[in-house]
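Please fill in the sequence for the structure shown.

STRUCTURE ENCODING:
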């Protein structure tokens, strides 16, 4: 079974200049989405879909956010001219708001024959981190609370999917995803660059006077999280800032772009130093990484990056979620 990913509302930006080891989008397995195109005439929803006879007819059993995928049933040929959504289970968590991020597990079915097109979080992998608000499925999420289970019926494009035709979606809102690290602050080594967070969590990095490139990439945990550990090859949602060790000039930052970024944590996608610094670290942590030139870009920095040849780089990374 194909693994489905929500392309229009997932956090899948283009490669950020400071981290890409090679061309690609650095955003996990979004290419695994079904390739069939959606109805060209469908406009993604921009407000809360109302419940209706179609969405009310979808029955779902099983625990919200549980280890087992829910059992879903509905009559073949179910249809909704305008997308409908019913809260099957009402959660008791925080109401989601535009501009926030949420971890969501979901399964998608073809409405015409009830065949399963794919699932994320339920049958395999972690819940997907999605943006709340805007259009498509993000608009539906803006009407939910953490702990909700929702059944939606409608055109795939209107609901934010690219499968084509009418679909049924069952989604569990697992958690709200923070936009900054929430771990316990740790004592910092004054010999390394020091970090102080602004009110919104954006780090201010101070480079020690006379700092020299390390002989090996240095990693320091600034805030210790208690979530799942990041393994090589995992997809992680992060906030980050990158500066040059020599002079402290910023060359890239998710904070400057206004939103967290999703990366596949592997040397095929990112520079070695960034991967070295994050593998084994826990969600909720803030990590300082000081790379050797060899573990950064060496003699071949990206064109237009402003990074000199053989530069040692400094990153501060907030690990927000897996998946």
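FILLED IN BY: designer on duty
SEQUENCE:
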């Amino acid at each position: 079974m194909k693994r489905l990913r929500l392309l229009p509302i997932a956090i899948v930006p283009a490669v950020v200049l400071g981290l890409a080891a090679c061309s690609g989008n650095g955003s996990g397995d979004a290419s695994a989405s079904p390739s069939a195109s959606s109805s060209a005439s469908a406009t993604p929803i921009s407000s809360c879909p109302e419940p209706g006879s179609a969405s009310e007819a979808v029955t779902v059993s099983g625990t919200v956010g549980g280890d087992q995928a829910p059992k879903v049933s509905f009559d073949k040929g179910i249809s909704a001219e305008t997308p409908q959504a019913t809260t099957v289970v009402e959660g008791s968590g925080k109401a989601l708001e535009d501009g926030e991020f949420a971890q969501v597990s979901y399964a998608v079915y073809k409405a015409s024959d009830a065949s399963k097109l794919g699932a994320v979080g339920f049958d395999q992998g972690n819940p997907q981190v999605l943006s709340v608000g805007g259009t498509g499925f993000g608009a539906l999420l803006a009407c939910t609370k953490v702990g909700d289970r929702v059944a939606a019926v409608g055109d795939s494009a209107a609901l934010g999917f690219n499968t084509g035709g009418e679909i049924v979606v069952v989604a569990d809102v697992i958690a709200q995803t923070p936009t900054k690290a929430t771990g316990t602050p740790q004592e910092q080594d004054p010999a390394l660059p020091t970090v102080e967070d602004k009110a919104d969590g954006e780090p201010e990095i101070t480079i020690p006077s006379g700092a020299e490139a390390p002989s090996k990439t240095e990693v320091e945990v600034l805030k210790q999280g208690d979530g799942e550990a990041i393994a090589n090859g995992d997809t992680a949602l992060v906030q980050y800032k990158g500066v040059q060790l020599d002079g402290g000039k910023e060359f890239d930052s998710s904070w400057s772009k206004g939103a967290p970024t999703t990366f596949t944590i592997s040397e095929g996608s990112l520079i070695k130093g960034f991967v070295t610094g994050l593998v084994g670290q826990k969600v909720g942590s803030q990590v300082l990484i000081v790379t050797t030139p060899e573990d950064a870009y060496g003699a071949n920095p990206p064109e237009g990056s402003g990074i000199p040849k053989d530069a040692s780089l400094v990153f501060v990374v907030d690990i927000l979620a897996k998946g």
